[in-house]
Amino acid sequence: MVQPPSAFEVRLGADAEAIERMLETLLDPAPRPGEIARPRRLMEAMRYATLGGGKRLRPFLLVESARLFGAAGEGVLRAACALEMVHCYSLAHDDLPAMDDDAMRRGRPALHRAFDEAAAILAGDALLTYAFDVLADDATHPDPGARAALLLGLARAAGLGGMAGGQMLDLEAEGRYEAAGPLALDEPAVRRLQAMKTGALLSFAPEAGAILGGASAEDRATLLSYGKALGAAFQVADDILDVEASADALGKATGKDAARGKATLVGVLGLDEAKAERDRLAHAAVMALAGFGPEADTLREAARFTAERRS
């Protein structure tokens, strides 16, 4: 017997639908003021990479964190979509043969397989730059200071000291640049890599919601702490799923981390200890919100969902 969705799953689905509608609007083929044209094939590739897939966890965290501070509406959804576009760009580029060389993403051919490598590179480039276009627009937030904080935060989460830098550390750990093969990273090195490659963007999501809601510096720091713990839990859960889940459940190939010699906490700690660490991190995320009342329950459930997910 199929269980009815929980209140959290209903909220997650409702936010995902609102984000999908806003993405559809932002990725409309019609040029915007200041644009000369939106090339058809590039738009098709961008839409393929972005629309109709994924749980939208990062934008969900942004929307729900903004709601915690009384912010909602079009501007919040625009910011959430900017964050999701950066995430989708990273997936398109990660799947390329020069990177992780994955043929499937979200249960269908990866972008470079559905189109071609050049289209995947350009679609990723365009999604990344368009995300900053969206955030810089006063339709996202009337306060230039808030927009600047969003732009700075996203740049640092996605760039050299965040996601892009983490991807380079990941490639180095695989032994791409070492004749001897994969590097034997210790636990602190693995945690640093994961905090950059996956954690930085996830950590920024709730902090961005706090910025949109005009939260105090103290509350913004609290949401960042929550995001860091949740982001770390997400990556450990992902590592565990690569070992235990089926390709059908994940919508992509599994078992590739060990085959490539990727640095994971499963590899460093072992499967049982990695599961315990995943649960500890999810609990730490919940406890970071101890100063908030029941209005933060959705964010607490998001941390538990991250640890318990099966896909």
UniProtKB/TrEMBL annotation:
<keyword id="KW-0414">Isoprene biosynthesis</keyword>
<dbReference type="InterPro" id="IPR053378">
    <property type="entry name" value="Prenyl_diphosphate_synthase"/>
</dbReference>
<keyword id="KW-0479">Metal-binding</keyword>
<protein>
    <submittedName>
        <fullName>Polyprenyl synthetase family protein</fullName>
    </submittedName>
</protein>
<dbReference type="InterPro" id="IPR033749">
    <property type="entry name" value="Polyprenyl_synt_CS"/>
</dbReference>
<keyword id="KW-0460">Magnesium</keyword>
<dbReference type="Pfam" id="PF00348">
    <property type="entry name" value="polyprenyl_synt"/>
</dbReference>
<comment type="similarity">
    <text>Belongs to the FPP/GGPP synthase family.</text>
</comment>
<keyword id="KW-0808">Transferase</keyword>
<dbReference type="InterPro" id="IPR000092">
    <property type="entry name" value="Polyprenyl_synt"/>
</dbReference>
<dbReference type="InterPro" id="IPR008949">
    <property type="entry name" value="Isoprenoid_synthase_dom_sf"/>
</dbReference>
